[in-house]
Amino acid sequence: MGGIMNVIAVWLGTAGLFVSDGQTSFFIDPYMSRVSVFSVFSGKRLIPNDKAVEECLAILKVQSAQAVFVGHSHFDHLMDAPVFAKKTGAMIIGSESTAKAARGTSVSEDKVRVIKNGDTVNIGAFSVRFIEGAHGPAFFGRIPYQGAIDKPLVPPAKASDYKLGGFYGIVVSHPQGTFIHHGSAGWIDGMYDGIKADAVFLCIAGRNDTIGLIEQTALRTSAKTVIPIHYDWFFSPLDKSVKLVPGVKMDDFIGSMLLSAPDVEVRFVAPMKAFEVFR
Which residues pair with 244 in a beta bridge? Predict the structure, then answer.
């Protein structure tokens, strides 16, 4: 993917993204292992699937990347991030909990960066800012696996060992435009005040207030496009025909967008297919 090009993204399933402008490439929350629901809820120790990561990189034709950004530290956002970092030479960037997981998988210390609310990371032409928010009530009205990872996390580890570690919305700016990666369906009121975006990659599973979610993300930022993510059943292999998470209520989401944000495009993208973010 060398040379100058428009900013492209590839949705990797769940909240995962690959982003590149032809000169600088990075991942956000990449998760390809997609362990079974039984493994998660039975407390089985989970092993990142190196082969699945390698197959992903082969499809993307990616050998190197500059960064792996992690918005929060649940297993379906963090577990594969150190594997992606080590296989591409990327720096892994996120909360102290994310850093603990990176160190537990022997990512070298010079490839680990801890961020705080409001921190900005500049890579190539991209400026990446972390905005503190709140995780949505994903499991039966409750936020799962709360708390922080307090020591190096060495796989195999239980899903419950991947503590939340705080939630951050990720604001990515580039000369071509700005997009937001909002990897959970919760928020802090006004977290994006003063921020304008062209597009929002928006988690829509596990929400309990669809209108509120739209208002706090797409409408607050005057976004032109919302790209739904993290609505697929991430306990089975990723397929072209995306299987929905039970209870995602897709019709409700689309209807709420039409009602509260009729001028905003809802753009569904196919998994593992590159598309231009700004058009």
Answer: 232
Q: Could you give the number of structural domains in the chain?
A: 1
Owning domain of residue 222: 8-272
Instruction: List, for residues 226-274, the tens digit of each pLDDT value.
Output: 999 999 999 999 987 899 999 999 999 999 999 999 999 999 999 999 9
Could you give the CA distance from residue 200 to residue 202 in angstroms, rounded to a whole number? 6
Residue 36: C-alpha distances to residues 22, 29, 62, 163, 276 (Å): 35, 18, 27, 19, 32
- Global pTM reads 0.96
The Cα angle at residue 122 between residues 102 and 81, in degrees rounded to 5: 25
Q: Is there a domain that residue 277 lies in?
A: no
Is residue 162 included in any domain, yes or no?
yes
Rounded to whole angstroms, how far apart are CA atoms 217 and 266?
Answer: 13
- pLDDT, tens digit, 9 for 90 and up, residues 9-58: 999 999 999 999 999 999 999 999 999 999 999 999 999 999 999 999 99
Taking the alpha carbons of 8, 11, 12, 18 in that order, is the dihedral positive or negative? positive
Measured CA to CA, the distance from residue 226 to residue 210 in angstroms comes to 13
CA 13 – CA 123 distance, rounded (Å): 24
